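Can't paste images in this forum, so I'm doing it all in text. The chain is below; anyone willing to post the predicted structure tokens underneath?
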Amino acid sequence: MTRLDIARQRLHNQHIARATFEKPSDVVAWLGAVQAQDYAGAKWALGLRLQGATDHDIEQAFTEGSILRTHLMRPTWHFVTPADIRWMLALTAPRVHAVNAYMYRKLELDSALFKRSNAALAKALQGGKQLTRDELRGVLQKAGIATEGELRMGYIMMRAELDRLVCSGARRGRQFTYTLLDERTPHAKTLERDEALAELARRYFMSRGPATVQDFAKWSGLTTADARSGLEVVKAQLHHEVMDGQSYWFSTSTPSAKDVSPTAYLLSIYDEYISGYKDRSAIVDARHTAKLIALGNALAYIIVVDGQIVGTWKRTLRKDAVVIETNIFSRLTKAENRAMAVAAHQYGAFLDLPVVLA
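Text version of the structure:
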């Protein structure tokens, strides 16, 4: 197995090279969770893995609640399905609390205050209400809970999400809302901790392999010991190869020998192809690593050709078109440029807008 084999297999297993899913919830369920603090980018991350989906289709799924957005695994937002939100929060919330502990102390947020804030939020949202953060800020202030500063309010709401009290409601215009988790997902399943560890490991390695246990620990926010425990239960369902002294685990599904080359994809910021791994050496040439670090540890809208990061892109939305500007790290062939243009127009189709390549 080579570095290029790893990249090709990941494109296949993440359903980037084979967009066979039909519903946004199917993509999220397959991946387990999808990083989603950049909401527009996260919608495209799902759309890229769907057959003929549009931005409206993803928005509709979010409005209906077939995909939810909440804090889990690491202190950031993720898309997750209603069926998975409870057991995944129960498994990963303690680790997020450990990461947040310093900020809880700095913002003078303790268990007594969180008990009061959760009670006020529950009362305000009961009966199916969906309220914005600003509306809930007013609720908390009336309850005598200080919410000055976006950080303090943000951590109060994150704690309510991690406590399985609230989750995302439908958007109101451009504003996000919160609603009660019990009312949004009344039948969400729960799992025992060992069962949840195994299920998360199975989802991760099936959808993102080839990957190492260190990759899984970084993505999930779990300890390396917990990551190993989860893998141990499911490794009989996986293939295993060693490269450069590292053990890589992946599903038995393999890419088609007929896959064309070159292929190109415009990936969103935080796409799971980038954020799902601790070690990104299989998907970026060492010559370009310094450029990515300068961009913020590869946290940018990324262009991938044949599984390798070759540059970045950004979009500008106009009423009549989407303008896409590219920053290519090294010269592409004519065939690679054509593949990139096809990828750009695929993004335009997702937005239902013509594309202007700058």
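The chain has a mean pLDDT of 94. The longest helix spans residues 85-106.
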